[in-house]
Amino acid sequence: MFSTSKKEAKARDKELLISIIEYLECGNVYKESDSVQYLVSRYSDVAGKLIPFFDKYKIIGVKYQDYQDFRKVVELMKSKDHLRIEGLE
């Protein structure tokens, strides 16, 4: 299972997350106490749907740098460089 993309939100945002699932056709929503989580478990969905979506619709604010780091990890996995020490430097 590839569980890289997790988006926590307040329980009232569950409908928004469900809309994202329907639009991107990937992921699931899980309820945990007073929040919900959006989880995408397939690498192909992360690389083929999430990354293109957030490349097209840029994240604004401090979370943009987190996205850039996340995107870099996805690229390392695509090239399999994450399996080599040199790829992680």
Structure description:
This protein has helices at 14-24, 43-56, 63-79, and strands at residues 5-10, 28-32, 35-40. The protein has a three-stranded antiparallel beta sheet. It has one domain: Endonuclease I-creI (Roll). Mean pLDDT is 83; it is low at 1-6. By secondary structure, it is α+β, with helices and mostly antiparallel strands. The longest helix is centred in the C-terminal third of the chain and has 17 residues, at 63-79.
The CATH superfamily is known as: Homing endonucleases
Main pleated sheet = 3 strands, antiparallel
The string of secondary-structure elements, in order, is: EHEEHH
Quaternary form: single chain
Helix content: 40-55%
Indicate the CATH architecture. Roll
- Write down how many β-strands occur, each being a DSSP E stretch of 2 or more residues: 3
What average pLDDT do the residues reach? Answer: 83
Alpha carbon gap, first and last residue: 25 Å
Q: Could you say what the CATH topology is called?
A: Endonuclease I-creI
Q: Give the overall silhouette.
A: elongated
- Rg calc: 14 Å
Q: Quickly name the level 1 CATH class.
A: Alpha Beta
Total helices: the number is 3
Assign the structural class, choosing from mainly alpha, mainly beta, alpha/beta, alpha+beta, or little secondary structure.
alpha+beta
